[in-house]
Amino acid sequence: MTLAFLTTPLLGMTDIAVIGRVGDAEMLGGLVVGALIFDFVFAVCNFLRAGTTGLTAQAVGAGRPRETEAVFLRAAVLSVGIGVALILCEPLVMAAGLVAIAPGPAVAEAASTYVFVRMFSAPFAFLNYAILGSVLGRGRSGLALMLQIVLNGTNIALSILFGMVFGWGIPGVAFGTVCGEAAGCAAGLVAVASLRSGRLPRPGEIFERAGFRQMLGVNRDIMIRSFCLLAGFLLFTRLSATFGPVTLAANGLLMHLFSTGSYFLDGVATASEQLAGIAVGARRRPAFDRTVSLTCLWGVGVGLGLAVVVFLLGDMLIDFLTTDPAVRASARAFLAFAAATPLVGALAFVMDGIFIGATWSRAMRDMMVVSLAVFVALGYGLTSRFGNQGLWLAFEIFLGLRGFTLLAILPSQRRRTFAGAAA
């Protein structure tokens, strides 16, 4: 799953490279703004993947193949519905994005073109989330990797073809993404169909009120958690901007290193979702405890390895990402903080996976709200007193608090879930 997640950043790099060669600065800026709007919307809707993984894994663990299929079909209906709603609301989404980012007229025009075309990919993209969640919940991570390669590989190839070879520019890159999502969706539906055993659930089973209510509840909580997480990153950026463009650029560069490392931690988190979900579905408490201990060990180990890599190779990475002497110097001054973030945040990634797999989404949501409230207070308080060092310290506390609050309430959640189960 780490390999699967690592294919995603290649899309953004390809789109930037294509427009960087066939367009001007305004077109490139429009692409960046448009992609930022989609990143926000699609990140919030990632609950369609996470919620499906946890519910599918529990159905697999409980030995309920028809419920496994029903979970996917419910997620598919929800995905297509949200995707179509977003297409209809595209003018509102675009207007809100432009108000929040406030780009120049030429950049806004290019961004509007990109968003208008790419928005037609929403139903396919969200259905791909449901497909990925279903495949992961069944423990078929190799198949998930292949589907991500098909999706992202097709997307990259068509974006280059339409955007650069045909010379369509921004519309071509966006249309390539639409076609890539559609191709990935087709491949994914074939893959899910190949995993099916027996007849499809009846409509009454698919649209069962209790099942839909559970899916909506889990997805709602994960969506709120995602909003809070994004709000934390936006606050970090907003406070960084108060120190001027050099510090803002340096913090953004260092945050990019953390974001890249997070794809490795996401692989561990996804494993914990699937394993924890199966253990809960099967009501096997020893398997659940083993999942927690192993994934915590792997998560901290991966986080430590990433921290060492960033610390030792940080100077070289900074020089590769920017040529500005002032930004380089500022980034080096806070490199130690950036190097610590994967290790400090490792437990949060693992605990998120455990709680999603066990569908303890309400508890995860509540701890995220608490962590964000602490970050807001510390962010303004420490920043005003200690400057950018205070901001980084507040951010490290935010990451650590997310993981340790979830770990603290895990025993009580475990007792309620496995009450009456064999030890």
From TrEMBL:
Family: Belongs to the multi antimicrobial extrusion (MATE) (TC 2.A.66.1) family.
Gene Ontology CC: one annotated term: plasma membrane
CDD domains: MATE_DinF_like
GO MF terms, alphabetically ordered: antiporter activity; xenobiotic transmembrane transporter activity
Membrane-topology annotation of the record: Multi-pass membrane protein
Organism field: Jiella avicenniae
Keywords carried by this UniProt record: Membrane, Transmembrane, Transmembrane helix
InterPro entries: DinF-like, MATE_fam
Localization per Swiss-Prot or TrEMBL: Membrane
Record-annotated membrane-spanning stretches: 27-50, 71-102, 114-137, 149-168, 174-195, 222-243, 294-313, 333-355, 367-383, 389-410
Short name of one Pfam family: MatE
Top-rank taxon, per record: Bacteria
Protein name: MATE family efflux transporter
